[in-house]
Amino acid sequence: MRPVFCLVVEENPVVGFDLADALDANWYNVAGPFKTGKRACEWLSQTPLSPTASVLRSSVSFRLEASPS
């Protein structure tokens, strides 16, 4: 079974780090927290990893473009 890889985007650093720590403590692979969707997209464009789950605050919006295969 493939491990779940979560991408955390949260503008409040305290909430973001608490969420990332909670996910990590429960054996999830975590990227972030990122403060903005733009930062998350920049990170995603530089890594071969693909998140299987995303945790976004409702006020954070961005579009993830599918990478060419």
Short description:
The chain is an alpha/beta fold. The chain has helices at residues 13-25, 37-45, and strands at 5-9, 29-34, 53-56.
Question: Can you lay out the helices and strands and say which pair or pack?
Answer:
Layout: E1 5-9, H1 13-25, E2 29-34, H2 37-45, E3 53-56
Describe, in plain words, how this protein is organized in 3D:
With 69 residues, this protein is α/β, with parallel strands linked by helices. It has a single domain, classed as Rossmann fold, CATH 3.40.50. The protein has two helices and three strands. A three-stranded parallel β-sheet has the order 2-1-3. Strand 1, helix 1 and strand 2 (29-34) form a beta-alpha-beta unit. It is flat, with a radius of gyration of 12 Å. The protein starts with a strand and ends in a 13-residue tail after the last strand.
Taking all Cα atoms into account, the compactness measure Rg is 12 Å
- CATH architecture grouping: 3-Layer(aba) Sandwich
Task: Strand order, main sheet: write it out.
Answer: 2-1-3
Number of helices: 2
Q: Could you give the count of β-strands? A: 3
Largest sheet features: 3 strands, parallel
CATH topology: Rossmann fold
**Runs with pLDDT <50, length 5+?**
64-69
List keywords for this structure.
Rossmann fold; flat; disordered C terminus
